[in-house]
Amino acid sequence: MKTVLVSGAGIAGPSAAWWLHRAGYRVTVVETAPALRPGGQAVDFRGEQVKLLAAMGVLDDIRRYETAMGDQTMLGLDARPALTVPGAAWSGEVEILRGDLARILYEHTKDDAEYVFGDRVTALTETAGGVDVTFRHGAPRTFDLVVGADGVHSGVRAAAFGPERDFRHDLGFGIAGFTAPNHLGLDHTSVMYNEPGRGVTVGSHRLAGKLHVSLVFGADGVEFRRSPDEQRALVARLFANTGWEVPRLLEALPAADDLYVDSISQIHLGRWAKGRIVLLGDAAWCAGPGGSGTGLGMMGAQVLAGELAAAGGDHVTAFAKYEERLRKPATVGQKNGKGSGNFLAPLTAAKIRSRNRAYRMISTRLFGKVFTWMTDRAANAVEYREYPALTAA
To answer: What secondary structure letter does DSSP report for 226?
Structure first.
C-alpha cells in the first residue's frame, strides 16, 4: 500500500486524510500543535460544498454544532445601533466554529490515519522511489507522496518551494480572535463596531456564556510572528484607546487560551506541485476572509484524492488535473478576499459610513440577492463530482 504524509491537522489536512484513505493510501498526519486547536472563527458552507459534507458523512455532526446565528447589529461611529444585517447573509446554509469542525474531522479519520502531534516537517528530499522527510522531533521517514496542508505558514511549502516571503502577499491588515465572557448577554446574535482602522465583531451562539471576539486592524509595519504573551500585548496596544465595549473585552485577553493573531495575507504560487509533493488549501492559495477558503480546501482534498485514484496513483497526471480543476476557483476566492480588510476595518470615518451604506443595501431584497450571488459564486466555484475510481477504492 502506498503511503502519504499530510502536514497539517486543521481542516484541509484531515479532509485529505479522509479521501486519501478511500483512495487506498496509508495516511500519516503530522501537526505542529500539541493537540487540536480549539475555538477559531466561524466558517460557513453553501451549495456544492454542502454536497461534499454530506458525501463525507459529517453534515449531521456539523449541524449538531452549528452556530445558528441570527441577525447582526451594526453600530455607527457613535456606538449606537445603525442597522441590522440578516444572519443568512454571513452564515450560509450551515456555519460552525473552526475548532468544532476540526474535531469532527479528526473523529471521522483517527481510526483510519496515523496522527502525530507536536512535530513538523523540516526538510524534504525526493528520490526515485519516494520522499525522505526529516522532522523536528521524530525520526526520519520515507513516504510515496507528501501533501502540504499546513496553512499560510506552511513548512512543506518552505521546504519544497522556497521561503514564505517569496509567495506571501500581505493585504495591509491583521486579524485577531479569542473567547471572552458573554457580559453583553448576546444570544445567537452578533454586533459589529468600527473606528478608523479598527473593526470589532462579537457574537454568541451555541455556548451562551461565551463571546467570540474578532478584531481586524490596519497593520502596516506590524510584526506578527511573536510569542503568545507578545501577541496579547500587541492586541492590547492596538485597541487600547478603542471605545464601546472594547476595554471590557480586552480584560479577557490574559486568560484567553485560544488567542489567534496573524496578518491578512494571500499566497500566490505559479504551481502547487513539485515532483511527489503537492500543496493544498491555504498553503497553496490562501485567499483571506471572505474567500471561501475552508470549503475550497475541503473540496480540493476530494479532487486531489479523486484524481490520484482515477490516475491509478500516477501523481504527475493527478497533480496536474487537480490543479487544473482548482486554479480558477482559487483565483475567484482570492478576488473575493482581497478587499476583506478594507471592508471589515475601513481606515477612515468616511469609509466606515460608506461601508455601512453598503451593508444597508445588503439588507434589501434586491442587493441581498446580488450579495448572495457573490458569496455563492466562491462557494460553488468547484462542482462536487463523484470519482468512480475513488468510490470503488
So the answer is: -
